[in-house]
Amino acid sequence: MVDVSQHELVPDHVLIDDPEEIETVLTEYDVKKTNLPKIKRTDPATPDDAEVGDVVKIVRDSRTTDQAVVFRLVVS
To answer: CA-to-CA distance for 51 and 46, rounded, in angstroms?
Structure first.
């Protein structure tokens, strides 16, 4: 079976464990946790240890900004 999370086109998905880092992100964007875009727990790119309610940081390569960072809330 192929592990799609290891494909070169799949951006890095990192689970944020630090509550302070999550709070910093929410404050910076002036949103609540539930306002973040969603990612399903069953998505192949979601880290294995992610639980519903966790926040995942996704780092993509970008032509204009070198790297684009987005955040997703893990849902069921």
So the answer is: 10
Radius of gyration of the chain (CA): 13
Q: How far is CA 74 from the centre of its chain?
A: 8
In terms of Cα–Cα distance, which of 3, 4, 72, 18 is closest to 40? 72
Q: Which two tokens stand for residue 53?
A: 């309610």
Q: Residue 23: enclosing H or E segment and its boundaries?
A: helix 19-29
pLDDT tens string, the chain, 76 residues long: the values are 777 778 888 899 999 999 999 999 999 999 999 999 999 999 989 999 999 999 999 999 988 989 999 999 999 9
Range list of β-strands (E), 1-76: 12-16, 38-40, 55-62, 66-75
